[in-house]
N-acetyltransferase domain-containing protein (Daedalea quercina L-15889), 242 residues
Amino acid sequence: MSHSRLHPLQVNSATGEPYLRLPSPHDNIIITPPRMSDVDAAVHNLNDRKIVDFLIGPPFPYLPSHAEVWLSNVKEASDAVLAELGRDDPGQSDNEPKVVGRCPVHALREVAEDGTETLIGDITIRRCDFAHEGAQRDMRREENEARPVGDPTIVWCIGDWLASSHHGRGIMSAALRTLMTEWAIPRMNVRVVRAEAYTENFASTRVFEKFGFVQERIADDVVTTNSGVTWHGVRLLWWKHS
Ligand SMILES: CC(C)(COP(=O)(O)OP(=O)(O)OC[C@H]1O[C@@H](n2cnc3c(N)ncnc32)[C@H](O)[C@@H]1OP(=O)(O)O)[C@@H](O)C(=O)NCCC(=O)NCCS
């Protein structure tokens, strides 16, 4: 495939895998498609209470079979976007980048000096499902799902986690900025994002705020994670492209 169709993704010349690189001082970290070989690292991290106590999604304990299903689903989605980017569309020139409905890269990997790559996190952008919106939830979710790819009124949301060994170094802040400015805004036409974090999840809140997210309100939902932690209150934050 012509590399210009993937712009600004770079392509690993040895493996053909596309990636985004975080800016300095985090330029030893890249964001790539998921790989089936990520099972062990996913199992390790998604059993770490410093991560999963803040996430509503993953089963706990998180088993290799969970990782295999998750990775095969997200890999299929990523492969489908890459195939779409490579397909010829009538009237589409390589000078007008195609707008797509997903980001094909979301796995954060640390690259060691000897080239070894370690999965250290994930940042995924997807359509918002309007959890914590009470009675309006289904209607808003259905409306949002029905909007065509590229529609600037689609509301997006972001899910992320980082290996606890790497917390507090500015990595996810850099990853969010890279994802948004390099891919989501130019190649998905993302204009509105709604983020959610448990009220006491100050690190996540701060990551969003540093990119310009503003708190809308705190939903008074009580949420228990699969790891058994009960949180009182979910902070809803919005970002709008200026
Ligand atoms: C949320 C998470 C991805 C952040 O990743 P990270 O790379 O450690 O974040 P960064 O280092 O880029 O930024 C964290 C910011 O929060 C701040 N912070 C961290 N803990 C804090 C606390 N208890 N109170 C106030 N601020 C805090 C840091 O000081 C930093 O802000 P600064 O740059 O202004 O100093 C990571 O903590 C994580 O994986 N948490 C578990 C999973 C999770 O919560 N996912 C998000 C669900 S909504």
